């Protein structure tokens, strides 16, 4: 009987787990093309229309809140299965909703599944992946988000002639069922099995996903040593090192959202419409395509160049893009009719913005938040950072249109650019480089009192 290549097993397992990101992207982008039809059918004003995105995001925050407890109680795999079930049933519920309150309740339920998946998928991937390709495999989750966004943009454009948000939404049922079937075939995380004292099962799982017995033995010894020296969960909650990484996770997620990407993902059609384009759907599709292709670049280089150099590059691009986009929109607000050249310049810098985000903050924030937490509290730490992501995401999704209409679209983009300026300080002085370092080594440095930005230094 032929030997199964462990590398191929890891890729297959990681792909199935990352399908959670695909559903995330599909759900987020759905609003972009279907919003006008939802507004029409439910007769919504500007404030109520923000709830269409806001309720999904609020549900995601609540789902993330409980995801850590679920993961530590039932395991990473079972929680992924649960999220797939929630996707399938909540999307069906949304399709059947005939009043706006029922529609919002269904969107909230879908958000619960999104929030749980956004926690457990990067966590699971970080615990399954070999450390040499850990960044790329966690980034696969972000890639699937971008693919989901692009596919939804294309689907919405193709189905816009129907005038039915229900037909647009029905597309999401197919990947949710595929994810449900796929997650049932996943192995459990070996680190979770070790946490519940099933060392033989942990070793068996590692044997299937590592290339040599020496790798299995080395990794098992590291996991055992980490568990042997662990403090109680209550004691860790009071430890300065845990509070530091949790705060860093919250700030990284805040930076990711206030950089402004989801203002594009939810409302790119309206942005291009406000800029004077007669067919903004085409611009939206191009945005989705650039998002996917750039995330592929991030996956290729994140384990070669490192996390921090790519973050510096991305933040620099975001700052410049927001400054130019904000300036052009301010010209329009002052009564200037944009020339064709100015419109193309606007689109160019919008796409540059997408490139800057997708190559850096998009995938790398999820990577870092999954890597820096200590094993015995990883579920709680990642829960907190993921919940923070959804809280900030909810603010962006609910208030972007309000900001456009009050302070102005140009000032809104300048606000996003200022957030990226603050992000440079966060990355330089507080964020570690984690490339080529095992999770257990990061934890050893953290517990030894090494400065947060230096915990990626190799243990001698």
Report on the architecture of this protein.
The protein is mostly helical. It has a single domain, classed as Growth Hormone, Chain: A (Up-down Bundle), CATH 1.20.1250.20. The chain is built from 20 helices and no strands. Helix 3 runs antiparallel to helix 7 and helix 18 packs antiparallel against helix 19. The longest helix has 37 residues. The radius of gyration is 22 Å and the shape is globular.
Relevant terms:
460 residues; Growth Hormone, Chain: A; globular
Number of helices: 20
Q: Give me the strand/helix succession.
A: HHHHHHHHHHHHHHHHHHHH
The computed structural class is: mainly alpha
Using the coordinates above, name the CATH class: Mainly Alpha
What is the CATH architecture annotation? Up-down Bundle
Q: Can you give the helix content as a percent range?
A: over 70%
Integer average pLDDT? 85
CATH topology: Growth Hormone, Chain: A
- Give the DSSP E fraction (strand runs of 2 or more residues): under 5%
- Low-confidence stretches are none
Radius of gyration: 22 Å
| Number of DSSP-assigned strands | 0
Summarize the structure.
By secondary structure, the chain is an all-alpha fold.
Give the arrangement of secondary structure elements.
Elements: H1 6-42, H2 46-74, H3 76-96, H4 100-128, H5 134-159, H6 165-170, H7 173-183, H8 190-195, H9 199-209, H10 213-228, H11 233-237, H12 240-258, H13 261-274, H14 280-301, H15 307-333, H16 340-358, H17 361-371, H18 378-406, H19 409-430, H20 439-447
């Amino acid at each position: 009987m032929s030997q199964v290549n462990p590398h191929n097993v890891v890729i297959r397992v990681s792909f199935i787990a990352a399908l959670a990101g695909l559903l995330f992207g599909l759900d987020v982008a759905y609003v972009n093309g279907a919003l006008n039809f939802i507004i029409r059918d439910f007769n919504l004003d500007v404030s109520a229309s923000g709830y269409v995105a806001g309720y999904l995001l609020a549900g995601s925050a609540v789902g993330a809140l409980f995801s850590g407890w679920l993961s530590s109680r039932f395991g990473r795999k079972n929680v992924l299965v649960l999220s797939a079930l929630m996707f399938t049933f909540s999307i069906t519920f949304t399709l059947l909703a005939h009043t706006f309150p029922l529609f919002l309740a269904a969107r909230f339920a879908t958000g619960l599944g999104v929030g749980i998946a956004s926690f457990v998928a990067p966590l699971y991937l970080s615990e399954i992946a070999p450390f040499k390709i850990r960044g790329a495999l966690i980034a696969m989750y972000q890639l699937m988000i971008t693919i989901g966004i692009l596919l939804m943009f294309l689907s919405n454009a193709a189905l816009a002639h129907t005038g039915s948000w229900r037909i647009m939404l029905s597309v999401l049922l197919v990947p949710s069922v595929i994810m449900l079937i796929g997650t049932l075939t996943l192995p459990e995380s070996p680190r979770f099995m070790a946490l519940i004292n099933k060392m033989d099962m942990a070793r068996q799982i590692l044997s299937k996903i590592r290339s040599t017995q020496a790798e299995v033995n080395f990794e098992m010894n590291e996991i055992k040593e980490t568990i042997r020296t662990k403090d109680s969960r209550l004691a860790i909650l009071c430890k300065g090192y845990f509070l530091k990484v949790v705060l860093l996770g919250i700030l990284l997620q805040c930076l990711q959202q206030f950089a402004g990407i989801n203002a594009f993902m939810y409302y790119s059609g309206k942005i291009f419409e406000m800029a004077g384009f007669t067919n903004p759907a085409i611009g939206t599709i191009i945005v989705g395509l650039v998002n996917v292709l750039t995330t592929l670049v991030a996956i290729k280089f994140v384990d070669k160049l490192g996390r921090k150099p790519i973050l510096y590059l991305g933040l620099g691009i975001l700052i410049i893009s927001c400054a130019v986009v904000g300036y052009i929109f301010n010209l329009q607000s002052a009564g200037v009719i944009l020339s064709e050249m100015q419109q193309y310049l606007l689109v160019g810098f919008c796409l540059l913005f997408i490139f800057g985000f997708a190559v850096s903050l998009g995938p790398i924030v999820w990577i870092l938040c999954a890597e820096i937490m200590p094993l015995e509290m990883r579920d709680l730490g990642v829960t907190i950072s993921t919940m923070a992501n959804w809280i900030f995401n909810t603010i962006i999704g609910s208030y972007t249109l309000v900001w456009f209409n009050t302070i102005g679209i140009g000032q809104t983009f300048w606000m996003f650019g200022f957030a990226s300026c603050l992000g440079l300080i966060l990355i330089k002085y507080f964020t570690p480089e984690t490339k080529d370092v095992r999770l257990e080594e990061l934890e050893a440095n953290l517990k030894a009192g090494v400065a947060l930005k230096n915990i990626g230094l190799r243990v001698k």
